[in-house]
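hey all, quick one before standup. I had two proteins in the batch that finished overnight and I want to keep them in one place so we stop losing track of which output belongs to which input. First protein below, input sequence then structure tokens straight from the run.
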Amino acid sequence: MRDTPLLTMTGVCKRFPGVQALQDATLEVSPGEVHVLLGENGAGKSTLMKVLCGQYAADDGKITFGDRRIAPESPIEAERLGLVIIHQELNLIPGLTVAENIFLGHEPTKSGFILGEVMRETSAELLRRVRCGVDPDTPVAQLSVAEQQLVEIARALKEDAQLLVMDEPTAALADAEIEALFEVIQGLANEGVPVIYISHKMREIFAIGDRVTVMRDGHTVGTREVQKTDVSELIRLMVGRTIGEQIAKREVEIGEPVLQVEGLARGNVLSPTSLSVGAGEILGVAGLMGSGRTELARAIFGADPVDAGTVSVGATILPGNDPAASIAAGLGFLTEDRKQQGLVLQMSVGENITLTSLDEFSRHGLLDLAKECERARDLVQKLRIRASSLNQEAINLSGGNQQKVVLARWLAAGCRVMLFDEPTRGIDVGAKAEIYELIGELVESGVAVVLISSEMPELLGLADRVAVMHEGSLQGVLPRTEASQERIMELAIGS
């Protein structure tokens, strides 16, 4: 079907302490194709790409790029070879501006002075290509996760790439941004630049991919032409079992309100907002990028200060701007940015899981280590967290398993109310089904759930009601019987 491969990886092996991340992995990519790399979290996809792009050194194997064998020893060396990667986890410097991040390490100079105007003009053009409307002089720390992702893509486009790797590039993007990104990808492919595209979203695979290679447990299990396969076959290759596409909604009798929010407001980002969630209820929160969904969750949890309003859990009125008090009252918050806000990456899996519930394992000021380990081990098994042991550092887990560790922490804390902000972001099909099951178990036990999601099937499949945000304002709350994709989008765009 295609020309001689531009990239060939054969017999690639990589081992970390206690974990065989790659075992005899293979991959072939031809010029001008969009090659999807698919697999469950921990399957080895990101590790294989990090070997390709010089972040990790392979223990064994061979990489051929063009007409020569390569073994990049650093990302800088890989970029010089024409290999550019956009990582799943953002790698921007918050204190620098957008333009400074885009040009980091490649600043244009004249007579020893950095040409700031050139950087700004070029950055503005790159941002327009990915339909990102931020000012190049804006500090990255002020951007949302979705905007930071777009800046990462713009930075990659600046390089003269001969092969581009995108690791979950649409995880925090709205439909319009995804469509714009697909146009960029297709343009690169038409110019002969292949793209390796890592994604768990099946609709994206069939919308943009030419071929798909599936990995499982560090092995390559097969390559298929996208137009000659289907969702069922790909899922079977990924997980070794068949998973239904439908989200099973558990019918739970909703109890008295457990979470009550009255007139919560913050500056220009959150207009006065009131809502309530009953025991056993799932309140979905929908909205486009910048709609204020995350800001609402952070304000409820006390992570950000507010100008007005109150939050109550049961009969307890929270003091505001005090996450510790929120946790003590039984309120948990699974953030959208697990790496920066959810985990202590240098701590072990077990320590991360029990971090917010240490009182449960303490007697007379001393930790009962055996009880703590038993609880953490039970949750590792329940959530199918792939770790070599409870002592493995969280930083060495795959992105999806890091997300599961954060979820395990809140399960260990026994919260009465759970705020989920994009809980399946970057999660594969099999893990999504497991998280849906866990959310179902939570509401059956009487936990009130607030589910923020960009995935319309999640909201329509799981939520009892859907609250829709637009520009920091709550536009309406739709009961399950009235919630549809069309009605939600009408409210989300403020019509």
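OK second protein, same deal, sequence then tokens:
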Amino acid sequence: MLALTYHKQIPKVKLMYLGIDLGTSGVKVVILNNNDEIEIQSSAPLVVSRPHELWSEQAPADWWTATNQAMIELKNTHPEIMSLVEGISIAGQMHGATLLDINNNIIRPAILWNDGRSELECKEIEQQLSDSQQITGNIAMPGFTAPKIAWMKKNEPENFKKIAKVLLPKDYLRFLMTGDFASDMSDSAGTLWLNVAKRQWSNKMLEATGLNESHMPKLFEGTEITGYLSEEVANSWGMTCVPVAAGAGDNAGGAVGISVINPGDAFLSLGTSGVYFVATEAYQPNPEGAVHTFCHCIPNTWHQMSVILSAASCLTWVTELTGFTDEKSLLDQIAKEDFTKPCDVTFLPYLSGERTPHNNPSAKGVFFGLSHSTNSATLGRAVLEGVAFAFADGQQVLLDAGTKIDQVSVIGGGSRSQLWGKILASVLNRPLTFREGGEVGPAYGAARLAKIAVTGETPNDICKPGKITNTINSDPAMADYYHTQYQTYKKLYQSLKAHF
């Protein structure tokens, strides 16, 4: 079902900037006015196909269908706003292998970021190129794009031979919007084909998977214009042929949306996956800790991320598992738990394997400590805490890399839960800041990138932090018992990993 939100009537003199976020579970569109305020937003859902163990795929045609649904709904309900849009930018799920043949037709379903089939190919790439981590700043992981292509070359050779262009998901939308093959630095850094320090494609990494630079889109900074909306698409959406900015991978887009663009600024993203993101002024890789070191979508800026593959998706899963109709109902029950003492159950949140710090696509979710007294609220609490412990793992490897972490904001759908915020603050033992618009995330950031590209203003001029709605501090008693329970959590993984 299409979701639409309308905020207020506007005078026609205002200019608008539109951001598209191609997520895993849906497409979200946000329109900002010239005062950085959300005017309207819409969304349309997507589904993930899992045809085999460890596989995760989507049909690129579904991305375009969902995008058009959201845009045409806005056109039909608020044509006056659509006519005022001055620029567009796109953020999107990272790493997905979207493959076009010489006629620009899709070859096969896109292999997504949380697909774990290419573990062997990751090892083979690093054996073949001993300096791959020095070139890319990252350990080879199944989620990245390059190992997916190596898997195809071995397992689907006929499809591999057809490849004329490899695009990331959002950049396939761009191609359909403008006819251009283009990408931004932040998204491209997640392919394992980019020399992240130099911000350019690495011929050496491309050759390792049987490709060359002709298979790649042209690279742009996220704030640069890559092309213009085609007349056909513009007419369909009720717009003029406005410029389209390069945009960002979803996490970098979320960072721009929450104004995490200066060194030491950080955020936690509680989306389908979980991200601990820190902006850096220099290239600071730490592949040994499975830390992602990528270009930011802001020029001359980089960022580090620890990534967990299942975050808010764990809450969705346990809600369905326990028979609750919605997550809020379960959260209300969890809130009645006694938080003066530790939970009897510990949860390992590896429902889709794990990236940071384990780089283990075969890791599994685990409930430990079940008894006859365990109820749905206890399971739900264990899930919230298990995800927080996974973030603690990520925080530690960031600190081990010498990363400076100052103020941490929270974004994503899971940011709506104040209870989860209290748990996270106590596990991480640091205050967390909640801001207006934090739940919108990458779409908001994409709209800001569109404004920067069109107006030529600086990122710091545009990316003002949103109003703080709440700051949650660590609870000393909770932090104390979480410290002990976190040690149990870490030992559980070590004792079980040989059995996954």
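Flagging for whoever picks this up: The mean pLDDT is 93. Residues 376-400 form the longest helix (25 residues).
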